[in-house]
Amino acid sequence: MPPKKEAFPAEGSAIPDFDLESDSGERLTPADFAGRWLVLYFYPKDNTPGCTREAQDFTKAAARLKKLGAEVVGVSRDSTKSHCGFKEKIGIGFRLLSDPDLKVHRAFGAWGKKVMYGKEVEGVIRSTFLVGPEGKLLKAWRSVKVDGHVEKVLAALQELRA
């Protein structure tokens, strides 16, 4: 019998519930974003090259995203202390959430088997989810390549808002 395939949120379905601590010490849940667009992205690790570029790209696009009514939130398994240092070091302009037990990563399908340097390993699958004002997942990007990704998110948001 083949291994059971895990169920991840499908486009059009409600996003998984979560309750995570942010870099400012507040706890955030999906209810905190009700009535607003949310760009929720999962990344492997603070202060690494790809994750730094991705955070910088989202920070550069923050004004355009805000104009479209969207808020960006990054999620990794790093501690809130690590997030604070990362934000300060590169000037990140949005909140970062800590998911140390990977519960939310798993619920969104942002943790699992992947190939790294030719070997299969288990780890964070860089992913972005565009959530509509009603809390439904409207677009998902899995196994994200950083370069050009934020532009794809902006284009999808503009299209969905049209």
Overall description:
With about 160 residues, this protein is α+β, with helices and mostly antiparallel strands. It has one domain (about 35-160): Glutaredoxin. The chain has five helices and nine strands. The protein has helices at about 50-60, 60-65, 80-90, 105-110, 150-160; strands at about 20, 25-30, 35-40, 70-75, 95-100, 110-115, 120-125, 125-130, 135-140. The strands form two sheets. A seven-stranded mixed β-sheet has the order 2-1-5-4-3-8-9. Strands 6-7 form a two-stranded antiparallel ribbon. The longest helix is centred in the last third of the chain and has 13 residues, at about 150-160. It is globular, with a radius of gyration of 15 Å.
Keywords:
disordered N terminus, 5 helices, Glutaredoxin, alpha+beta, 7-stranded mixed sheet, 162 residues
Summarize, please:
With 162 residues, the protein is of the alpha+beta class. The protein has helices at 49-60, 62-67, 80-90, 103-108, 149-161, and strands spanning 20-22, 27-28, 37-42, 70-76, 95-98, 111-116, 119-124, 127-131, 137-142. The strands form 2 sheets. Strands 2-1-5-4-3-8-9 form a 7-stranded mixed sheet. A two-stranded antiparallel sheet has the order 6-7.
